[in-house]
Write a structure and sequence with these properties.
With 482 residues, the chain is mainly α. Helix content is 64%, strand content 1%. A hairpin with a 2-residue loop joins strand 1 and strand 2.
Length: 482
């Protein structure tokens, strides 16, 4: 009981703090006079009141934060925010509850799937709010909160482990997790500011530049225009997007080392980053060759331009588009979706199963073959000169098995709602990999699917963002035993 009251206290505190993030879109509404101030004020009021209602009865509870507490807080916080973040859409855009929650969860998990159309005519404050949600979800609100938890007398490593993607969650780049979280957020803010400036110099207006920087570095993919970045028809803007999408897909620990130790070689010195850049390059060349061979683009330069942009967008799970790749030669959309399963680096804002897991699985394959030939052979799995612990290998295979099982179950459930195989497969893939665009009936947006399908996909987005374990562990009886 004391543990649950402590969790209640933390959730109330987090929600109260989260209400502050609604102030920027409120100020934008007042500046542009777009008549959306009242919906944001209502949303702030509901969020603050709920946060205080949770925090006040348990405000005196003191307890050390355990690992299990971290899973409960993170799981409930993300589910709760999916609901509360929907309020501005419900009050402002007059969307029904299901569509509002779908849009909010898609934003917060940086998936980028949308049920909205007519973005070019939407109020600026709501457009900015969508972008800001993706930016907050990119690094993770919990990690942001952990950065200030030491001032509140609460340890944050358990929250960080529950939310941070990747198999090496126990490793800390700095002795104190609060220092690490603050360092990562400073880098994140610096990249965002640099991206906004670059977009502005490349020709975007100030509002668009800031808005798109929020969804580029977070690899979220929402845009202020229905046509996404294709609206600008600018190779310079596309080049800026490619650079910052790729940076967002790199482990922030590597950014930290490169900046603090002034070691730009840290990027190519990391096996995961090298693999990430190499397979993006190879995929770009293969897709460009196919676009040129099929005369979809008749010059090599255009084929390379569109291939590189869409490959970078899909691999980093950003989801920006400059062309409708679902219309490209048949095998290309399938290849792009398979690349989306790999995703970016662990410890980045990108989705997917992460490059490091696939590296470890490929290294484990030859090892198992050798064991069949030499049963007594002892040959550890290595990354560079570093031996990977067996528990990490086990966790990778366990994650892969759970991912596939979850994927199949949700896909079958979607087909039971009436979706065809292509639509169901791509919808689950884009949701669990936090990618955004789909194929079939969800190629352009998710308006046309049923409410039941939207709820299933919202769950898939959350499971993908929190890497499945964080939510599934809450459903196991052993987790709740003392």
């Amino acid at each position: 009981m004391e543990r649950l009251r402590f969790v209640q206290k933390l959730l109330g505190l987090f929600l109260a703090l989260y209400s502050l993030t609604l102030l920027p879109p409120l100020l934008i509404s007042l500046f542009y006079r777009d008549h959306e101030a009242t919906p944001f004020l209502l949303s702030i009021g509901v969020t603050v009141l709920l946060g205080l209602a949770l925090w006040w009865p348990a405000r005196q509870v003191r307890r050390e934060l355990k690992t299990r507490d971290g899973f409960i807080v993170v799981g409930l916080f993300w589910i709760g925010l999916g609901m509360l973040s929907s309020l501005p859409f419900h009050f402002g855009a007059h969307m029904d509850f299901t569509n509002s929650v779908f849009e909010a969860v898609s934003a917060f998990t940086t998936t980028g799937a949308t049920v909205l159309t007519g973005l070019d005519d939407m109020p600026p404050s709501l457009l900015f709010y969508r972008q800001q949600l993706q930016w907050l979800g990119g690094m993770g609100v919990i990690v942001l909160t952990v950065a200030i938890l030491p001032m509140l007398g609460v340890g944050g490593m358990q929250l960080y482990k529950a939310e941070t993607p990747g198999p090496f969650k126990d490793e800390k780049i700095l002795p104190r997790i609060g220092h690490a979280a603050r360092s990562f957020w400073l880098i994140y803010c610096g990249l965002t500011a640099a991206c906004a400036l670059a977009y502005w110099v490349a020709g975007m207006g100030l509002f668009d530049a800031v808005a798109h920087s929020l969804s580029t570095v977070s690899t979220g993919g929402f845009s202020t225009h229905d046509a996404s970045l294709a609206w600008f028809h600018s190779p310079a803007i596309e080049a800026v997007a490619i650079v910052f999408m790729l940076l967002g897909g790199i482990n922030f620990s590597i950014h930290f080392l490169a900046l603090t130790q002034r070691r730009p070689d840290a990027y190519l010195g990391d096996v995961e980053v090298r693999t990430y850049l190499l397979y993006i390059l190879l995929a770009t060349l293969i897709i460009a060759a196919e676009l040129y061979r099929t005369h979809y683009h008749d010059d090599v330069g255009s084929a390379l331009r569109y291939s590189l942009f869409q490959t970078a967008s899909v691999v980093t799970s950003t989801g920006f588009v400059t062309e409708d790749f679902s219309l490209w030669p048949d095998f290309v959309p399938v290849l792009l979706f398979l690349l989306g399963f790999v995703g970016g680096c662990a410890g980045s804002t990108a989705g997917g199963m992460k490059v490091i897991r696939f590296i470890l699985m490929f290294k484990q394959g030859p090892r198992m073959v050798l064991r069949l030939v030499h049963p007594r052979l002892v040959r550890p799995t290595k990354l560079g000169r570093r031996v990977v612990p067996e528990r990490v290998i086990d966790a990778v295979w366990g994650y892969f098995a759970l991912y596939l099982a979850t994927f199949v179950v949700i896909m079958l459930a979607l087909m039971a709602t009436g979706l065809d195989q292509v639509t169901a497969f791509s919808a689950v893939a884009t949701s669990m990999n936090n990618l955004g665009p789909g194929l079939g009936k969800v190629a352009s947006n998710f308006q046309g699917i049923s409410d039941a399908a939207k709820w299933l996909l919202a769950l898939a987005m959350l499971m993908g963002r929190l890497e499945i374990f964080t939510l599934l562990v809450l459903l196991t009886p052993a987790f709740w035993r003392k």
